[in-house]
Design brief:
The complex is a heterodimer of chains A (393) and B (191). Chain A has 393 residues and is an alpha/beta fold. Chain A has 2 domains: 245 residues, Thiamin diphosphate (ThDP)-binding fold, Pyr/PP domains (Rossmann fold, 3-Layer(aba) Sandwich), CATH 3.40.50; 135 residues, Rossmann fold. Chain A is 41% helix and 18% strand. Chain B is α/β, with parallel strands linked by helices and 191 residues long. Chain B has one domain: Pyruvate-ferredoxin oxidoreductase, PFOR, domain III (Pyruvate-ferredoxin Oxidoreductase, domain 3), CATH 3.40.920.10. Chain B has 6 helices and 7 strands, in the order βαββββαβααααβ. In chain B, strands 2-3-1-4-5-6-7 form a 7-stranded mixed beta sheet, with helices on both faces. The mean pLDDT of chain B is 94. The chains are: A alpha/beta (393), B alpha/beta (191). At the A-B interface, strand 1, strand 8 and helix 9 of A face helix 1 and strand 2 of B.
């Protein structure tokens, strides 16, 4: 039976990792992730898991250790935030290009400079083209559930790609919420035994990892990697269906909230989606047809399904907790714009940047955006296509 | 209790305010309720003003932002009354619970509380010194909040305090905290 507890997001994810009991964990501390790996290393010290933990001297080394251990044939984890993810960047591409099913919670935090330890999505957005699968999580429950499902997705024999599980720094990682834990045995049965694929340590069948590929074959290799990405959404849905059977909790490629008959809508990731849902209920009570779409599988991005879910709206705002300097719009906006481009009839699309460096996202921000969308839907007039909100002028 | 009860805590770093919010969240889990407990994170310094929050509800808590309109405001350090507007955003029927040796009437005047708002006082620091030997007022404040809100029974709260403190502290400290919590519950005064 499910066990109900009040724990932080970090504690919930650390417990999911304990229940999975991976072979190898490379760990390096960085706020706000530190407490997660500290808890996990406690499980190692107390003999609660059989994991071999490698305490490394940087995140570049931690991802390098993960690559080595995964190629050797182990089930491998690490976790990071912010500068740590940025420092891993070079090795992220090696993990995905080598098709290694490493699982890594990313506790989202702003990037330096200026130095800031609080939550925004700039870190994971910088890794969105790295070939990793990204699952985003609204709250501690979703972070826990996504972590467990990540192993099945990463290790699927048709996929074999690394997975990041994104959760908001402090807002989720350090806040206590009610969540339901599955039994250890349920989790272990769900993820199953790790299946090796061409392990380096299988000395009877020697293989090479990390070879040089010249112009004669590099492009074929990259095309194959792109094709694997097209299989990911179906696997994510299959794994979600199996997860629902043991948990009762339903997951998709994204979550829609009161969207089907909506005229105006908001697209928003992670914890701010919850606050927005409460405000949407208030607008619905006033007779305004507002709805929401919260991406879950953000990489690879399910363009067709997302466009289908949003195309009927009159006006739509993408709220992003990160900017993309030098481009016209922010990361999620660009993906949503791409998903809607093929349709002749589509919503007027605007972009807001909120919550950078842990700035609070308040109900009043959602209200301002929804009121602006009502106006756009009625008049077709747009004041500004891209704007920072909740900021001093 | 309204559908969702929102609590704001004002304290200073080192007084156990964040721990009090956490223990309350844990105690409120019973009966299928949803809970949240979270501090406002900043540079964590002993003595610096801090806020922490609780939400308790019969339905899923989706709001992930600070409590702006609390029904209960728990002031763990009365010196904050001179520097911070603790009544900011409080609901018209809010309850203020202040750690002070002063009379509730006097605090009501100082807070300039609305006639519809309730003011409670509890000498939590004295209780803490008498029972724990240190000025750690969080346990009696927790008892007082529990009495005023009626969120959980005293027995249930004491069981949770025992569980939370049992992991870290000696039996003497645990017993002191249990007695301090019970006294906070029993000695809180309305005015």
């Amino acid at each position: 039976m499910a066990k109900i507890v009040a724990v932080t997001g970090n504690e919930a994810v650390a417990n999911a990792l304990r229940q999975v009991n991976p072979d190898v964990c490379a760990a390096y501390p960085i706020t706000p992730q530190t407490d997660m790996m500290q808890r996990f290393s406690g499980f190692v010290s107390d003999g609660k898991v059989k994991t071999e933990i490698i305490l490394v001297e940087s995140e570049h080394s931690s991802m390098s250790a993960c690559v080595g251990a995964s190629a050797a044939g182990g089930r491998v984890i690490t976790a990071t935030s912010s500068q740590g993810l940025a420092l891993m960047n070079e090795i992220l591409y090696i993990a995905s290009g080598t098709r290694l099913p490493i699982v890594m919670p990313v506790v989202n935090r702003a990037l330096s400079a200026p130095l800031n330890i609080h939550g925004d999505h700039s870190d994971a957005m910088g890794a969105r083209d790295s070939g990793w699968i990204q699952l985003w999580s609204e709250n501690a429950q979703e972070a826990y559930d996504n972590t467990i499902q990540a192993f099945r997705i990463a290790e699927h024999m048709d996929i074999r790609l690394p997975v990041m599980i994104c959760l908001d720094g402090f807002i989720i990682s350090h806040s206590i919420e009610r969540i339901e834990y599955l039994e250890d045995e349920q989790v272990q049965n769900f993820v199953g035994e790790f299946k090796q694929l061409y392990p380096l340590l299988d000395l009877a069948h020697p293989v090479s990892y990390g070879p040089l590929i010249l112009p004669d074959y590099y492009m074929e290799f990259r095309k194959a990697q792109a094709e694997v990405n097209t299989k990911v959404p179906e696997v994510v849905l299959d794994v979600a269906a199996d997860f629902e059977k043991i948990s009762g909790r339903k997951y998709g490629l994204f979550e829609t909230y009161r969207l089907e008959d909506a005229e105006i809508g908001i697209v928003i990731l992670n914890s701010a989606a919850g606050t927005t849902k409460d405000v949407i209920d208030e607008f619905r009570n006033k007779g305004i047809k507002a709805g929401l779409l919260k991406p879950r599988l953000y990489r690879p991005f399910p363009y067709v399904e997302t466009g289908e879910a949003l195309k009927h709206l009159k006006a739509l705002c993408v709220l992003d907790r990160a900017d993309s300097f030098g481009s016209s719009f922010s990361p999620v906006y660009m993906d949503i714009a791409s998903s809607l481009y093929p349709y002749n009839d589509k919503p007027i699309l605007i972009n807001k940047i909120y919550g950078l460096g842990g700035r609070d996202y308040l109900p009043e921000h959602a209200e301002i955006v929804l009121n602006e969308l009502i106006d756009i839907a009625e008049t077709g007039n747009v004041k500004s296509y891209k704007e920072y909100i909740g900021v001093r002028e | 209790m309204a559908d969702t009860l929102e609590i704001r805590w004002h304290g200073r770093g080192g007084q156990g305010t964040v721990t009090a919010a956490k223990v309350l969240a844990d105690a409120c889990l019973s009966g299928g309720r949803h809970v949240q407990a979270f501090p406002e994170y900043g540079p964590e310094r002993a003595g610096a003003p801090l806020r922490a929050y609780n939400r308790v509800s019969s339905h899923e808590l989706r709001m992930h932002c600070p409590v702006l309109h609390p029904q209960v405001v728990s002031i763990v350090d009365a010196t904050l009354l001179d520097s911070i507007n603790v009544t900011e955003g409080a609901k018209e029927d809010a309850a203020f619970i202040v750690n002070t040796s002063k009379d509730p009437q006097e605090i009501r005047k100082k807070l300039n509380a609305l006639p519809t708002q309730k003011v409670y006082t509890i000498d939590a620091t004295r209780i803490a010194i008498e029972n724990i030997g240190r000025a750690l007022p969080n346990a009696p404040m927790l008892g007082a909040v529990c009495k005023v809100t009626g969120l959980v029974t005293l027995e249930h709260l004491l069981e949770d305090v025992r569980k939370s403190f049992g992991k870290k502290f000696s039996q003497k400290i645990i017993d002191g905290n249990l007695e301090a919590t019970r006294r906070g519950y029993e000695e809180v005064k309305e005015g």
